[in-house]
Amino acid sequence: MSTAMSERRLEFSQTMGVMRRLMTLVLPLRWSIAATLTLGIATVGASVGLMGTAAWLITTAALHPSIADLQIAIVGVRFFGVSRGVFRYSERLLSHELTFKLLAGLRVWFIESLAPLAPARLLDRSVGDLLDRAVSDIEALQSFIIRVLSPPLVALAVGLGIGCFMAWFSVGAAATFALFFILAAVVVPAATWVWAHAEGRSSTISRSRLGDAVVDFVQGMPELLAFNGSQSHRAKIDTLRKELARAEHHAAMTDAVTTGAGVLLTHLAAVAILIITIPQVRSGNLSGVMLAVLCLAAVAAFEAATPLPQAARFLHQQVASAARLFEILDAQPTVFSPAEPSTTAWNEPGEQSPSLIFRNLSHTYPGTTRPAISGLNLEVGAGARVAIVGPSGAGKTTLAHLAQRFWDPEAGQVLIGGIDIRQLDLDNLRRSIGLVSQNTSLFCGTIKENLLMAQPSASTSELQAACRYAALESTLSELPEGLDTWIGEQGQRLSGGQRQRLSVARTLLQKPAVLILDEPTAQLDGPTASALLQQIFQAFEGTTTLHITHRLVEMENYDAIVVLDKGRMVQQGTHSDLVTRDGLYRRLWEAEHSMW
Amino acid sequence: MIDHRLARLAGRHRLLFLVTVMLGFCAGLATVAQAFEMAGIIDAVFLGGFALEATVRPLVLLAAFICLRAALTTAERIAAHRLGERVVGEIHSRTLAHLEQVGPITLGLEHSGDMQMTLSEGIDDLGTWFTDYLPQLALSALVPTTVMVLVLTQDPFSALLLVFTAPLIPLFMVLIGGAAQSKARERFTALARLGAFFLDTIQGLTTLIALGRIRDRVDAVRRVTEDLRQRTMGVLRLAFVSALALELIATLSTAVVAVEIGLRLLYGRLEFRDAFFVLLLAPEFYLPLRLLGQRFHSGQAGVAAADRIFELLSLPVTVSAPAAVGSGMAPPEVLELRNVHFTYPSREGEEPRTALQGINFQLQRGETIALVGPSGSGKSTIANLLLRFIEPTHGSISADGLPAYNIAPGQWRRHLAWVPQEPHLLAADVADNIRLGRPDATDTDVKEAAKRAGALYFIEQLPQGWNTPIGVRGARLSGGEAQRLALARAFLTDAPFLILDEPGAGLDPESVEALEHSMSQLLQGRTALIIAHRLSTVRRADHVVVLDQGRVIQTGTFAELRSSEGLFSTMVRSLGGSP
Questions:
Q1: Which fold has domain A356-593?
Q2: pLDDT tens track for A247-257
């Protein structure tokens, strides 16, 4: 019991912390929020006014006064009848306008915060999880202003206002009203909050696991079918769905019970007020007219308390979703742009391609003990073409990652044109390095849109030239819509070779100072691979090039070859030099060519 | 106002639906009784001058009706939730089962982010339709009618007023609803597009960063979200206007009734008790209609989602499962492709792509065939056909002379193992990923399979070893490592037929050597179709089939083909082998 209590207390303090942050988020909108609140109060006020005045009108009319005595009430009834709708409409419009501005801002902020975290900080997160945060969690926050922030404040104002009004006529009636109103507006929501404690978290977890399983079902369907695993995967999805349904069922029960409790309290309040006021009417302390007015006004005022249990339930979801968002928004990137970046840029046409130097480089990935690179010195001279070879896990790709500053090395430096890359603005650095790898992503859209990604200002003739150099022209001429051909999700409508050529064309448009090839031909067959490599070399003639490869063919094309093993450089030289010497290179080379 | 496809779905859960509506209706009756008692008490005290003691009985009755109403309301909500939950559970598993039959090739034309959105948010919207909208629709017909009849017995003039104003509510709903529906659909499309856009962005984040163009993407995100915001507000503005209309009708009518009965009371044409009863009932008359109006928006969202779901459900089935013919099929001796043609399905307005034009060949039990050819020559299509992801447009595939369409795909695939080019790694741990084809395999078996695939060394170096979850598309793993996991899957499955898509690709020479060793082990006594990119693989094959532009242009052994002029010898030379 005491652990449950302390858990609640912990959750409560967490909730308060997240709420404080959400409040700072909406702080700039405070005047609009105040206007929303005023309109919300006016809406319930109009309801109370309508029922109260109507009750007064009818009870007074029953005493057959002159019609003039009823005029004001008649006007009042009509006024409240019209104004309620108008108040409600304006309140909704304003609060939703506010909310969706907030959401749009959050989405942009989310991607802005996510971007610097990739790839180093996102390795242990699944796409489904991140997508959930970007879409569902932000979507969940849409109820923050409308359902969480504003109802309690409206209820407070209405409760106080109506309580004072009733106290004017009957303190007993006001006290009774206050008792029931507090039950409906404080106790029931608080109970809901406690009941809904576990459900919010477990439904969020099952929701994201269900999302992952559905992504796997859709994207991994070939594997699931081929291995006859699709049925059991569907069964797994069904189980996850049932888990989610259980969590949501709990929520629905809470919802149903609190709805019932709301009905009960609202109308029992009227009964209680009757019990208190009937003797007052009898003793003449309260007019019979006011008996009806107080009852009906009290019932109408409970409209302000009705949404509160739901607000309490939403609070859990809000806090969970917001906490998941803040987790991304607060995560620290591994690398930062320098405060005062060097202004060096190498994208002037005709300019000499700069050198790429790795000096005393050592790096160990977080969570691992074995260094991926240790004490490496490597110089790719201006305009030179160097190959890096070695078995898997030798640290070849780590070099590419360090050159692009996906991580900063533990020790040593990477220099481009003699400048430490840490002095360069990150975007500038990455635009200066062209990367073609075996798993470069293409984006859903047309060929043109994918190309423009590298150089938004490129003209159509520049695009066509890039395609020509990347040997994509014949492909384009076969496609009915040419550059405007839609390539599907991740370019799936293209073949492997076409995808790689498209990413080469994209890199060409980027006009990089230095080119890094990370096994760009790994997924291609021999002739296609050789042709592509030749085309890349031609297109990037004169550009400093580092080619990471394990495919030892046409090795005469390189000014130097560096052999890595377990993060260390074990050999360096030209092909003709290395192949005659005993060593890892010769062994690798023989393995590659032993098939002939 | 009610979509017939959705109505049919509801029909399958008729009983629960009726229970829900009856509970709601009885709650409505309790409300009427409550109003009646209330009016009686006020009348007795106000005009009759009764003391508290004299009103105990009606007060107790009033409290009882209130309790009944609260209980019925609670029960109605629970039943409604059950209804939504059941329909959603049914439609969700039905949709997934259907998508499975549609198969990966046709689904590849759809947007998976979009589809995921439909299968999560879309399904939820559908549930809300059944929980909130449908029962309310029935109640908004039943409760006001009952109230109206009761008012008629007390005060026909007021009843007349209610009768005249009531139809305005559905009228407005229909008028505004038409526009709102198309807006809601647009909004749903925009939301789905946002999902797809975010998926694309998150999957391509590393590339965007490598291009140094993340800021442009952020601008694009801003545009897409702004578009969504405007569409959402468009939908909501309409929804709010319709709510305003309903609200005005309801409150104004209540006001008119109040004034009207007040005046008639004044002139003594109505009893106070009846007048007060009518005043109490008037808001209850409109309440179900107003609630329906409030839920109209969720009703719209449900219909829009239903559109997308039924669209998925109407995608054509690629491979139809036959009636139980050939169940429990033994491993076949020979697989044969006879005059097989295949044209890929296309999106609207696009030329369909012909991939195969009259392919003939046999795969005999125990032999290894290497498929060779330039990219786009149709190699993967043959693999897709043999995996039964697609059926030939013309021609036939058969096992021991029995046409494939007579064999259930599940049966057929039981004898196949597959190593794809870019394996999809499931969001599960490493061990479960290997277990894909044999979920009941022991840890020892899994370990053995991983060892044979050359995956053991890197798995054991992972932070949580076998229990390491695999992240963003297997971001923790390199392409070669992912491929080794796919190989381990095949080793574990232990099927007599193998389809290997570029087995050596992505592996370095040292591992290839190790892999070749284990592969030759695996190939023993097994039948394999290998989409080969490495000559070592081709040389080991019993037969080589050379494809170009969807046709077989050469067949023979490695030695035969190497010595004869043709595409194959050109491909061999292009590797530039000799030192």
A1: Rossmann fold (3.40.50)
A2: 888 888 888 99
